[in-house]
Design brief:
By secondary structure, the chain is α+β, with helices and mostly antiparallel strands. The protein has five helices and nine strands. About 21% of the residues have low confidence.
Length: 172
């Protein structure tokens, strides 16, 4: 598992290039625009940094609060095939039904659609690539990214970090 900061710092020359290409454009916008964007995102569930650290494991904190990424194929939820619901590990909001889960062969739990009013997205320009970051609409926790290479009926692939979620099996 690694955060963007760790990736950039440990990638040597590539890290410096990624920093210039990927991170600096984030700060090229005026500070007024950045402040307005941050102010627009108010979440129902909020905690101090200290509280988040006490509520989450170190790995969950890195993913949910620092936008880290777990190693591919490291999450047990990637191989979870029972009927049930995947929820946010930060606030327990139901996010995805097992009915929409599919094997994307990417190493992360993938879904073709979230539950209604479960997630929100925002542009992510890290690493010099424009992507749609997916976060929990209730606590703002980083979950992963959504791509347009998924199966029907939506054509979307919600590629999620397993550590950002919990799983509740459907009652028998």
């Amino acid at each position: 598992m690694f955060s963007r900061r760790q990736f950039l710092l440990t990638s040597g020359g590539l890290g410096a290039a990624a920093l210039v290409i990927g991170v600096l454009p984030k700060f090229a916008a005026s500070s007024a625009l950045i402040s307005e964007a941050d102010a627009a995102e108010v979440f129902e569930v909020t905690h101090t940094d200290r509280e988040w650290r006490s509520l989450l494991s170190a790995e969950q904190y890195e993913i949910l609060r620092e936008e880290g990424t777990e190693r591919a194929y490291s999450s047990p939820l990637n191989n979870e095939h029972r009927a049930g619901t995947f929820a946010c590990a930060g606030c327990d909001l139901s996010l995805f039904s097992s009915d929409t889960k599919f094997d994307s062969r990417t190493g992360w739990p993938s879904f073709w659609a979230p539950l209604d009013k479960a997630v929100a997205t925002r542009q992510d320009r890290s690493f010099g690539v424009l992507r749609e970051e997916v976060h929990c609409r209730r606590c703002g926790g980083h979950l992963g990214h959504v791509f347009d290479d998924g199966p029907k009926p939506t054509g979307l692939r919600y590629c999620m970090n397993g550590l950002a979620m919990t799983f509740e099996p459907q009652a028998a």
